[in-house]
Specification:
single chain, alpha/beta, 406 residues, 18 helices, seven-stranded mixed beta sheet, two-stranded antiparallel sheet, globular
């Protein structure tokens, strides 16, 4: 491509001043003319509904300086770090990103690359050590930290204590063509609930929105206006939909979702009637071995019936763009270099099953069952998100909404 491009992996849940800083620094440090963001959809990586839908959050990002925002398909976005990272990196590299930028607590790209190489070199040994420690009753994060400390030292293990660093290492491990670029995180940590000046974590901002507190100093004004207008996901509706899914399936069927196994389906069937809410159910199911994030992701996989990632095909779906982003996207398509299918719209007639509108390049000579399966989950995720937000199912469906020029 003629234009230098920096890709950013993000969730923007919601887009805030820290994200604005990261976006501006990514453009400045890379010298890129185009900023492309790969963003999770209506359900985010940790296994929860986003504070606003993907279309609104994509528009926030473009108003904040991004040129093009594309979706990380839900089956990959609402998943463990390696799956999330692999999908995001593939999308950005196929879109011609020269750099892929991500936030990290470390802020040291040389150190992150060195540890990523060391982990990759000892991947099988580390995996076996982690499996053994998990069988002994440790949670996966604790088992991973101990295994890395034993093999690579305490300094490497310490980098795995923070979520952005964990994702950063996964991004680096997945990159084939783009150069990694990291911007040190400013302000409060990922899970801290207090603001520092004009900076606060997305976790803190979501809490403030829930409690009716002002966020105008923490979020760019265009993003704040969009956030205020968006309906909020309702946890009671979310829990009711989950209950229906659990009651309608056997323990064995629940265990077959990608984040299941190890008897979690049976445990869920046995315990769900003891819980009065989603959060209460998570508290009942979590344990020393199963973290809150693992349980929430498992519940979301049950709700969406998400199978192993190999059942699905990655794809590129634009959500929002400005005129530069639109021009760049057209150039990528015209080049014929992108190997992933472009999904511009999802259409269905009453007499036909769902089908995707896929532009070049086609998957020549093969049925796109894996692509259809991924898009089916996108349709389901959007409909469930509309249900828990109490909004019109047709007006906000995948069959009606399309990418927007901002």
């Amino acid at each position: 491509m003629d234009m230098k491009c920096v890709g950013i992996t993000a969730e923007y849940n919601p887009f805030h001043n820290g994200h604005l800083y990261h976006l501006e620094e990514s453009r400045r440090q890379s010298g890129a003319e185009i900023v492309v963001c790969a963003m999770s959809g209506d359900f985010v990586q940790r296994g929860a509904p986003a504070i606003a839908d993907k279309w609104a959050r994509a528009r926030m990002a473009v108003l904040g300086g991004a040129d093009l925002v594309v979706e990380i398909p839900t089956v990959f976005a609402c998943n463990a770090a390696p799956v999330f990272a692999a999908s995001a990196v593939e999308i950005l590299e196929e879109l011609g990103a020269d750099y892929i930028s991500f936030g990290s607590e470390a802020g040291n790209i040389a150190a992150l690359c060195e540890i990523a190489r060391a982990i990759t070199a000892q991947e099988e040994t580390l995996a076996e050590s982690i499996r053994r420690k998990v069988k002994e009753g440790l949670s996966f994060p604790r088992a991973r930290a101990e295994a890395v400390a034993e093999r690579l030292g305490e300094e490497a293990s310490a980098l795995l204590d923070t979520p952005n660093n964990i994702l950063a290492l996964e991004y680096i491990k997945c990159m084939r063509h783009a150069k990694p670029l990291t911007i040190a995180r400013l302000g409060p940590g990922y899970s801290e609930l207090n603001a520092e000046g004009s900076l606060a974590s997305a976790t803190a901002i979501r809490r403030m929105l829930r409690d009716g507190e002002s966020i105008d100093a923490l979020v760019p004004q265009p993003a704040e206006k969009l956030l205020i207008a968006e309906p909020r996901p309702n946890s009671e509706r979310l829990f009711a939909l989950l209950c229906m899914q659990v009651f309608a399936h056997s323990a064995a069927e629940l265990d077959r979702v990608f984040a299941g196994g190890e008897g979690l389906g049976n445990k869920l069937k046995n315990e769900i009637r003891r819980a009065a809410s989603w959060d209460e159910l998570v508290e009942i199911l979590k344990s020393k071995r199963y973290t809150r994030t693992r349980i929430e992701r498992f519940l979301m996989h049950v709700l969406l019936d998400i199978a192993a990632p190999k059942k699905y095909t990655n794809f590129i779906r634009p959500l929002a763009f400005n005129s530069r982003g639109s021009t760049y996207l057209k150039a990528v398509k015209k080049s014929g270099l992108c190997r992933l299918p472009f999904v511009s719209s999802v259409k269905r007639t009453p007499a036909e099953p769902p089908a995707e509108t896929v532009k070049e390049p086609p998957a020549e000579g093969r049925a796109s069952a894996a692509l259809a399966a991924a898009i089916e989950k996108e349709i389901l995720a959007t409909d469930i998100y509309s249900l828990i937000c109490g909004r019109d199912l047709y007006e906000f469906s995948e069959f009606v909404r399309s990418p927007r020029l901002v």
